[in-house]
């Protein structure tokens, strides 16, 4: 085979390899904060504080600032596993394809068990939170657990993409663009 025939063959092999690699790549999944509908969680009223043992006190999720009446969104694509009341608190739980169950309280559901939801889709409206649970402010309790191990809890904030951090020198003079670029 001469050089002239090898070039198209090499290009074809490269294209087939690239197409195969792309088709085998795991799908990317976007996650959003249920309180904001964006990758940024908003103000955290109470952080994740898992107990050392299952029966000990702790905080098995995070509380995010949101006033009553705020539309609450699905953190990720999934299926509604539960929409109803748990111990008198309106609750929505979603099963996600990644083997994660997320729970939202106190949320008056706008979805029903079995409904498919997309990330960012409104699943309910935040109800008035009991003062004993959230302290002085109101907010959304957002929890996450791995499936099928429903006895473990995950920090749901870790589902969100890491924020971009940009640093600038404290003592540097302000830089402004000029015709020649940044100076």
UniProtKB/TrEMBL annotation:
Signal peptide positions (record): 1-30
Domain of life: Bacteria
Domain named M23ase beta-sheet core: residues: 58-150
Keyword Membrane attached: no
Keyword Signal assigned: yes
Keywords for the protein's UniProt record, in alphabetical order: Signal
InterPro entries registered for this protein in UniProt: Cell_wall_metabolism_enzyme, Dup_hybrid_motif, M23ase_b-sheet_dom
Protein name per Swiss-Prot or TrEMBL: M23 family peptidase
Species whose genome carries this gene: Corynebacterium mastitidis
